[in-house]
Amino acid sequence: MRIGVPKEIKTQEFRVGMTPSGVAILTARGHTVLVQEGAGLGSSIPDEAFVKAGATIVATKEDIWGQADMVVKVKEPIAPEFALMRKDLLLFTYLHLAAAHELGKELLTRGVNGVAYETIEPTPGDLPLLTPMSAVAGRMSVQAGATYLERERGGKGVLLGGVPGVKRGRVTVIGGGVVGQNAVKMAVGLGANVTVLDVNLKTLAYLDDIYGGRISTQYSDPLSIEKAVLESDLVVGAVLLPGARAPRLVTETMIKKMEPGSVIVDVSIDQGGCVETAKATYHDNPTYVVHDVIHYMVANMPGAVPRTSTYALTNATIKYVALLADGGLEKAVQHTPHLVSGINTYKGSVPHAAVAEALGVPHKAFHA
User: Which of 134, 234, 148 is nearest to 176 (CA)?
Assistant: First the structure.
């Protein structure tokens, strides 16, 4: 199979969909890998490293999309790439269609077979291709929040760890999954006063156990969310429903009541955000202010640390890339049945129930 790796064109996105190690794995299996010139530079991977691993460097994105049987990316295609998509092309990337209805329509209209990293689910709740980027984003969320709490950035001037004789900063993490757990880890490490909310009592018990009383765990309901949010200097939104739009748990009414200069970092923004006032931003202009509260809503947070993120992501994706390349989509599903959970669009239909509901189109089960 011919696998194409284009340069990412989303604003301030520096990751790349494959490393030289991935190229070596695929070419050793008899596949051809086409890498767009300069695709890896943002992740400090020169073209020469790809060539040494067996890739062919091509000049333009049109060459990649036009020649490849499967395109492997990091972020979802955006408008300038829509016209390059064609019938029966296999696209393997993050799609986040619940928050990208226009892309969903284009994939269906053009007959693209889209397999999404974020919905591959070997067992319920296990999202191995989302996990590495969730870990990065969770850790970054507290870094970003701590920075924007500084007065010169518009924040209230709070140091999360405090100092002897002064109260520590208050951090609320809504959601105790991979993002939430990594946010908690960073916030505790900085010495903050941390509260985490979740609807899964086992998750709360696990977090309570490993932090030995150093954090507060609360069952997530509207009243507990409101109380925690209003008491916080930093709120991290870390809610995920695989394939579906994130629920709006933090209302505008709550935000109006927060202290001026507080910060909200919504990592759920890829799936529409769990904050009512959320709208996606980019790294070159990451924040905006609503009711005197700073909103950090970057939809590709890990793109700011591409060297780490690219390797973390491709370590997880490469075995699936090889599986798809070896037999094509249909045979790959026969070999690894849980791969079907990653299929968001197939021959003009939507096999994933949550994605179909989010897009407002009929759900049609996958049949090869």
Answer: 134
Q: Which residues are catalytic?
A: 96, 270
C-alpha 239/C-alpha 271 separation (Å) is 9
Q: Please, which residues have CB within 8 angstroms of residue 68's CB and are 6 or more apart in sequence? A: 2, 3, 4, 34, 89
What is the tens place of the pLDDT at every residue in 240-294? 888 788 999 999 999 999 999 999 999 999 889 999 999 999 999 999 999 999 9
pTM: 0.89
171-192 pLDDT, tens digit per residue, is 999 999 999 999 999 999 999 9
Q: Which residues does 289 contact at the CB level (< 8 Å), separation at least 6?
A: 154, 295
CATH of 2-126+305-359, one of 3.10.450.50, 1.10.10.10, 3.40.50.720, 3.80.10.10: 3.40.50.720
CB 294 within 8 A of CB 261: yes
- HSE-up of 71 (CA within 13 Å, CB side)? 30
- At 241 the pLDDT is 84
Token digits of residue 355: 């994605």
